[in-house]
Amino acid sequence: MAEPLLRVEKLVRRFGGIIATDNVSLDVAAGELHAIIGPNGAGKTTLISQLTGHLAPHSGSVSLAGRDITYLPAYRRCALGLARSFQITSLLLDFTAADNVALAAQAHAGTSFRFFANARKERPLRDAAHAALDRVGLAHRADVLVSKLSHGERRQIELAVALASKPKLLLLDEPMAGLGVTESQGMVKLLQELRKEVSIVLVEHDMPAVFALADRISVLVYGRVIASGDPAAIRANEDVKRAYLGDQHVVTHHG
Amino acid sequence: MKNLTVSKAVTALMLAGLVLLPLYSQASGNVFILTLFTRIIILALAAASLNLIMGFGGMMSFGHAAYLGIGGYAVGMLAQEGVGSGFIQFPVALAASAIYALVIGALSLRTRGVYFIMITLAFAQMAYYVASGLARYGGDDGLTVYKRSDFSGLINLSNRTQFYYLCLACLLGVIFLIWRIVNSRFGLVVQGLRSNEQRMQAIGFPAKRYQLVCFVISGTMCGLAGALLANNTDFVSPAVMYWTRSGDLMVMVILGGMGTLFGPIMGAVVYLLLEEFLSQITEYWALIMGPLLLLIVLFGRGGIMGMLGRVGRG
User: Fold this and answer.
1) The domain spanning residue B58 has which CATH number?
2) Which residues in B lie closer than 8 A to residue A90 (C-beta atoms)?
3) Chain B nearest C-alpha distance from A140 (Å)
4) In the prediction, which pLDDT does A207 show?
5) pLDDT tens for residues B73-95?
6) Fewer CB within 10 Å of terminal CB in chain B, N or C?
7) From the CA of A144, how many Å to the nearest CA of chain B?
8) What's the domain count of chain B?
9) Range of the structural domain that residue B288 is part of
10) Residue whose C-alpha is closest to residue A7's, from A28, A34, A31, A36
């Protein structure tokens, strides 16, 4: 089998006596949408933070397209084609939507130690920003300050920013968080489109969305992967049902 | 659009006033006003440089007066050692400021928030005490610059009007550079870091590198102000580096409007004119100045530029 795009091996991260990531191994093939689910406190965000480089693991390794990135800082991983969205929207609020996205494009288009020419007049950057905004359906809001946009729109901008860096792998940390029903449906539709172009790791609470989108699902409980497989296998898995006792009906309900 | 025209109109008026001031001074025979405004322009230049890191970069440096001293001492010490040429003095002043900024910035930028403020303050105070210890160059008493920088006939700094225009040209040149910088790729990155550092790291920008370069540019610009200031007063002393002077510069920036192009000039003009005016009325001028600044900062969000914007809208 070909080298997976992302390979996580025996990752361990402790916080004091608590093992937040307990020997996690998983891989994501090119073109795959791999979802990570788990109850609150399962260590999803801790895991994601180690993938993005915001948190260092105590042992184990992370590699992207065959290259060990376990201890690379976040900005270097980004240059290698790893983009992320934040669970809690994290944008430049006093910048326009277009500026937010154009900066992401700029990060991947040569040096930014240019001091004189007006960056807002660089056609390629503006075009890339416009294309990414168009992709998420927000081209008409390009010149609005992000602080003036709705929560749902900001979630979409998060995605546009991640896309603008033309990543190989997209790490989406709860893209549906705080979205209404219609907005969620829109987001699922959008992700369905995007997954054709880019590999995605999706951390999400919204079970119907996960089961509709994922090629494979890994279930994280108390920092450990208790099951990994395609949606049908996960739905049938007894351990998963037990772990999700409270949410069980959600898992089984979705046909 | 109307709010733009009000602040733009006031800015244009102010700039026109600054350009025409020597004519008024000559016509009225009021030499004092020219001297006063030369000082205002030099400190406006220092405030503008501080605004680059504080207003646009979000780096609250509380030690910016150190560069005034470093630029000033470069001129004073070279003059004392018999190097009178401005073509040597000014580049040395700028280079010394840049190197100081590089070292201080590399150390300070490991910290954030209050710690950054305190560490920049601490370094500036260290520079102050170092200067106080320079026995050969006057120590505590300071150093008299007997001869102004010599630009071999190109421009005569001892001529008040010529010197005034040199300072004004430097100020406008620096404002022009800052304008280009803040709209450049580099400037957008620095402003992005002010807004949300985590996000900028996540899209692939190493924060510290950009902030450090910005810190050095700002320090170098302020070193220029220091070199001009030493020529203006024919004197340089550790007092120009004292922390209260760094505070004055911060007040000018905040008063005028952080992160605006012309705010620092506005702030310097208003602050120094108020100081001049109030100190003529009473020796307790600080008692009036303090509350006045407090009111402006409390109720005039965005400083003078911000208020002008709101006047236009209202």
Assistant:
1) 1.10.3470
2) 196, 198-199, 202
3) 21
4) 86
5) 999 999 999 999 999 999 999 99
6) N
7) 16
8) 1
9) 2-313
10) A28
Q: Which of A75, A107, A116 sits opposite B180 (nearest CB)?
A: A116
Kindly report the CATH number that applies to the domain delimited by A1-81+167-255: 3.40.50.300
Of B185, B202, B210, the CB nearest to A78: B202
A117 neighbourhood in chain B, CB within 8 Å: 184-185
Considering only CB atoms, A92 lies closest to which of B183, B185, B196, namely B196
Check: complex ipTM more than 0.90: no
Q: Which two tokens stand for residue A47?
A: 């895991």
C-alpha–C-alpha distance, residues A136 and B136, integer Å: 67
Could you tell me if A104 lies within 8 Å of chain B, comparing CB atoms? Answer: yes
CB A35 within 8 A of CB A60: no
Task: Report pTM.
Answer: 0.90
Q: Which residue has the higher pLDDT, A112 or B309?
A: A112
- Signed CA dihedral, A98, A112, B170, B107: sign only: positive
The count of CB pairs under 8 A between chains A and B is 93
3-state DSSP assignment of residue B204: coil
Give me the pLDDT at residue A254, please: 45
Taking CB atoms and an 8 Å limit, are B199 and A108 in contact across chains? no
B309 band by pLDDT with thresholds 50, 70 and 90? confident
The SS3 assignment for B143 reads strand
A84 interaction partners in chain B (CB closer than 8 Å): 202
In a 3-state reduction of DSSP, which class is residue B237? coil
Averages of pLDDT over each 10 residues, chain A, 255 residues: 85 91 92 91 89 92 93 90 88 95 93 92 94 92 94 91 91 88 89 91 89 93 91 89 63 45
From A170, A96, A171, A103, select the one nearest B199 (Cα to Cα).
Answer: A103
